[in-house]
Write a structure and sequence with these properties.
The protein is of the alpha/beta class. Helices cover 48% and strands 10% of the residues. The chain contains 15 helices and seven strands. It has a five-stranded parallel β-sheet with strand order 4-5-6-3-7. It has a two-stranded antiparallel sheet with strand order 1-2. Strand 1 and strand 2 form a beta hairpin.
Length: 380
């Protein structure tokens, strides 16, 4: 993200000068002396460049807007397939889902809503319980199988992040690009896009992973939208499967899953959870054997306060890992904020740099999944 170019600064200053004909010394609108106004503009430019650096540090996925200019996107649906973290304690759930994916076609559970033979497998559980991580693990397994066997069990394997509010046009484009590896062409209507997508999926055995699906059983429109979402798979080959993650079982049933294929994300036992927490908190940190033993003892006490939440284990552990010192861990062990999930996240937030916290606070005024464009954000 580059600073404003000399040419842009020249245009900006020229426009300002043209708006102040009444006095050679003061700006007509602000009443500020020109020298002071120039200094203010320089400060604003410096603040903009600092903000751009902060956005870069946040490592948000980069996309281009309609003019080909870089934009900061929070709505990227491929965000869920970033490099996978270590998976601990999910072997049983993983093996169970893989077995379901590879069931023989004559045992396929037909989708009772659409009447097709693609079936739905669902993972449900509270936020931060590891649903997406487990689904990602399954996704990686099937992609690897496809690479090693050239075709694999599934001819097409696709990951799409859905979220609370979704646009069918965007989802269909993501499915098209996931299936073909090519950019989806611009089409005039959703109907034309659906037909183009069905041409790609026709007669193929497909694994479509829909991550983070939301559903309100009291809203009939939600049910209709979900059915439209999976409708292109009706042209697929028998044995196609949709793997869904959601906070509620209702969403899975609305998509056509049968009860026995709705899998609640299992709790980690205390031993597994401690292993996960210590992996994030200490891992291969360079500390002496004596200090490591003490840190492991303190870490065990901290882990008991985290309610076996994988999200909190990762959040708190990653923060502690930056300071693997006995006195710091002892101090944090006694803090009240660490006891609850949101408390742990808030605790982590408090350790962000001041300018990053201000950036987060400002960006929180935008709705979930809103696309942030650089130029608009700078103007705001």
């Amino acid at each position: 993200m580059a600073p404003l170019s000399p040419f842009k600064m020249y245009i900006l200053m020229k426009n300002l000068q043209s708006s102040m004909p009444s006095s050679p010394l003061k700006d007509m609108d602000t009443g500020l002396p020109k020298v002071e106004l120039k200094k203010s503009l320089e400060k604003i430019e410096s603040a903009i460049n600092d903000a751009c650096k902060v956005l870069k540090q946040l490592n948000l996925p980069s996309v281009s807007n309609d003019n080909g200019r870089p934009a900061v996107a929070t709505s990227s649906r491929s965000a869920g397939i970033s490099p996978l973290l270590r998976v601990i304690g999910r072997d049983q759930d993983h093996d169970k889902i893989i077995a379901m994916l590879h069931e023989k076609e004559n045992r396929c559970h037909a989708n009772t809503i659409s009447g097709t033979c693609h079936s739905v497998i669902g993972i449900h559980g509270i936020a931060g319980s590891g649903k997406s991580t487990l689904a990602r693990c399954v996704y990686d397994h099937e992609k690897k199988q496809k690479r090693e066997n050239k075709e694999g069990h599934f001819e097409i394997v696709i990951w799409v992040h859905v979220s609370q509010k979704f646009d069918l046009d965007s989802i269909f484009r993501d499915i098209f690009e996931g299936a073909t590896g090519k950019k989806c062409p611009k089409l005039n209507s959703l109907h034309t896009l659906k037909e183009k997508l069905e041409e790609v999926l026709l007669g193929k055995r497909i694994l479509l992973i829909l991550d983070d699906v939301w559903y309100n059983s009291r809203n009939s429109e939600d049910h209709e939208e979900l059915q439209k979402l999976i409708s292109p798979l009706n042209v697929g080959k028998a044995g196609s499967i949709i793997l869904v993650t959601s906070r509620t079982e209702d969403a899975l049933l609305a998509l056509g899953a049968v009860q026995e294929r709705c899998i609640p994300i299992s709790d980690l036992d205390d031993e597994m959870f401690l292993e996960m927490f210590m992996y994030y908190a200490l891992g291969d940190a360079r500390v002496g054997d004596h200090d490591r033993t003490k840190l492991e003892m303190i870490g065990k006490d901290i882990a008991t306060k985290l309610k076996r939440s994988p999200l909190v284990a990762r959040t708190v552990g990653a923060r502690l890992r930056k300071n693997p010192k006995v006195e710091i861990w002892m101090r944090e062990k006694d803090r009240d904020l660490i006891k609850e999930t949101m408390g742990a996240l808030w605790w982590s937030y408090q350790y962000l740099d001041e300018q990053v916290r201000r950036c987060f606070a400002y960006c929180s005024i935008f709705p979930r999944r809103h696309r942030l464009k650089r130029d608009e954000l700078v103007k705001l």
